[in-house]
Each structure stands twice: as C-alpha cells, then as structure tokens.
Amino acid sequence: xxxxxxxxxxxxxxxxxxxxxxxxxxxxxxxxxxxxxxxxxxxxxxxxxxxxxxxxxxxxxxxxxxxxxxxxxxxxxxxxxxxxxxxxxxxxxxxxxxxxxxxxxxxxxxxxxxxxxxxxxxxxxxxxxxxxxxxxxxxxxxxxxxxxxxxxxxxxxxxxxxxxxxxxxxxxxxxxxxxxxxxxxxxxxxxxxxxxxxxxxxxxxxxxxxxxxxxxxxxxxxxxxxxxxxxxxxxxxxxxxxxxxxxxxxxxxxxxxxxxxxxxxxxxxxxxxxxxxxxxxxxxxxxxxxxxxxxxxxxxxxxxxxxxxxxxxxxxxxxxxxxxxxxxxxxxxxxxxxxxxxxxxxxxxxxxxxxxxxxxxxxxxxxxxxxxxxxxxxxxxxxxxxxxxxxxxxxxxxxxxxxxxxxxxxxxxxxxxxxxxxxxxxxxxxxxxxxxxxxxxxxxxxxxxxx
Length: 451
Prior knowledge:
With 451 residues, this protein is an alpha/beta fold. Helices cover 41% and strands 14% of the residues. It has 3 domains: 2-206, 3-Layer(aba) Sandwich (Rossmann fold), CATH 3.40.50.720; 215-310, NAD(P)-binding Rossmann-like Domain (Rossmann fold, 3-Layer(aba) Sandwich); 316-446, 3-Layer(aba) Sandwich (Rossmann fold). It has helices at 13-22, 40-46, 59-69, 104-116, 133-146, 168-174, 184-194, 207-238, 242-249, 282-293, 301-311, 313-327, 356-366, 389-393, 406-409, 413-419, 434-439, and strands spanning 2-7, 26-31, 72-75, 86-89, 122-125, 155-160, 177-181, 202-206, 336-340, 369-373, 385-386, 398-401, 424-427, 443-446. The N and C termini lie far apart (65 Å).
C-alpha cells in the first residue's frame, strides 16, 4: 500500500485526500493543525463528515465511504511524514495588505517535512505560489532540513489544482492536470501519481512553467472580469444595460472550421466585486515572482490595473446605494440597509476575500444600521449576520445584492415591498429584473444598468 499524506484540510486538501483514499492501493493521512479556527476539522473528518458546506456534489458521501473503509484518517501528528511515500502540500499562501506573499505556513511545513521525510519520497506543492518559489524557497528548506538532495534523494514537484467551490470533485477528476518537476524524472513520477485520480490529460513540464501557468490562468480571468466591470460602468453612464450588451457581444459564433478567422467572444459577467482565494491574490503572486526573480524590469500594467478596477466595485456599490437613497430624500447616515449574500460565491459558505466585507465595513461606519443575510454562512467575526431572510429585510430602506444565492431569485417583489420601509434595490449580481422591480414601485440601481 502507498502511504500518501495531505498537509492542510481546506478546499483543496480535503477533496484531494478523499479522491486518493478512494483509489486502489493508497492509504491517506490528512494533517491539520489543531488551531482555534480549523482544529475542529480533525474530529469532524474522522467522523466521516465534510466541513465544507453549501452545494458540493458527492464530497460528503465520498468522505463517509473512505473513512468507513479505513483508507482516510486525519491527525495533527506530523510524525506521519516519516513513513510517507508521497506528501502533498496544501497550505494557505495569502498576500498581505501590501500584496506580499505570506509564506509562514509553507516554510514551517517544508521544514517539518524535511526533518522527518524518508529517502525516495515525492513532495508535491499544490498550494499556489509566486513563480520561482518551489525552486528558490521550498527546495532549499527541504534540502537543508533533510540533508538530502532534491531530484536525487527525493522527488519534488509543483502541481496546481483547478478547483472551484461547488465543483471540487468534478474539477479535480475531469480537468487537465499540469505537473511541473525540478527534473523531468520528478515530473514523471508526480504525473504517474495524479493519473490515479485524474481522468483528463496530465501534462508534464518544469516547476517554473507550471507555477507561471497557475497564476496566469487566474490573472487572465481577473483581467477579463475587470474588462466586463469597466464596460458595466460605461453602460451605466450611457444609460444602457450591460447584460444586453454582453448577450450581443457573446452572440458571435465560433467557427471551428477556421477559428483563427472567427474566434468566439466570451465577455465575463460584471458584478459587485471579485472574491475567493485565488483571483484577488494570484495576480499579485505573479507580480511578486516577476519582481523577485525576473532578470529584466517588467511592469504588468494591465494585470495591476485590472486588480484596481475589481477592488473598487464594492465602493461603486456604495455609490449606487447613496444615489438610490438620495432619490428617496434619505441620507446614508439615517438609512437601514441589508446586504444579501456574504459568501463570495453563490450557494456556498466560502467567505474568502468576499466583496461583501469591504461593503459592509464601509456601511457600518456610515449608516444607521446594516445587517447581512446569508443562508449558508453561519458566523463571521465582526459582522451583523443572520440566516433569517425575514429578519434581514424587515423595515429596511435598501437591499444590496452581493451574492446570487438561489434563494434570492425566489423573492416575490410584492412581498418584498411590504417588508421594507423604503423600496430600494441595489443589485450587484443581476438577480432582479429591473423593469419588473421599477413597475413594482422600487427605486432600482444595478451594476452596469443605466437609469
């Protein structure tokens, strides 16, 4: 039996551990620190329960299956590194307010692994890092702590995930996997491992190329969302509806007979802001790798400007709220406001870098009352949060939609009008029909929807 250890029981580590534990001939141990925030996951997972709430098809059933089978257990005991054939590193790599990567967990885990791992082990970094990190930071720590040489005494690779909340198992098994090794032999061994759970192609390359591909993949999406948000602001100014514009832009057909002459268009959906673990962070990781290890001075202007546009969307939501209140002769400081949705992604409980938080923090300082409703998020420090929609809407002057949870699409406008003190809707996710809302007596503002 292969002994595989997954370090970090988060949105990547948990489904990865479960999938490998379901593969033939692999026993998996998950390692999680008993921290105040996340230590509870150890006992929870060992009981066959999934700590990830919201819509996550198949995950809890798979965890139950492999725990019952005995091929998955979770611990805080790092001595399990000693007999591990494979160790996957899935720890957080956030950036601080100055956009500098915080590698404390990565460095600590790398050192602990190096001190305990055995000769011949495969170490695969799955956490997203700045280009050059595996070669220039992880490798030296592992070599110094172990007294062994990477590529000779042990294998080292970087292989990034493409997970999305709501599609964790699907993406890990059905999306192509990129595997970068510090040597071709390291890449080959890691690729052989991932083929045990990946049904799509597994591509082998070097660590640096794989690291760049990961952050570029997310920076590309971030730039495209920023373009859509900028077009939305243009449409607001001109009095048009960005969603109609987007529909016509995206109607250009793709001609597979000659794609170079007629490539398709795929304008993204604008909205109240960009959240999640990856998009607000990965462009800065790309820039950090460039600034730290690049041989020539390059300024990634488009990428940095796109980040600024997306970061300003919660502030734009605040402006739309103030406009709507003024139209009803209300001042922000006298208004009671409800934010609908706190998770960054619909139908999930994932609050990482949610754009609802900066909007909430600004409103809390300025308005009479602000409450946040979310059907999945149970608690958030320093936030007046409720799971009761009636409570969130009762007597409010304005609702601001930040997350398009399915529950909000079912809100009846007549019922909503009766609940609210002042009928104002500011829609950051295109949940409500503007014409129907106005006909029902609401003052309506929407991102990208001109008045």
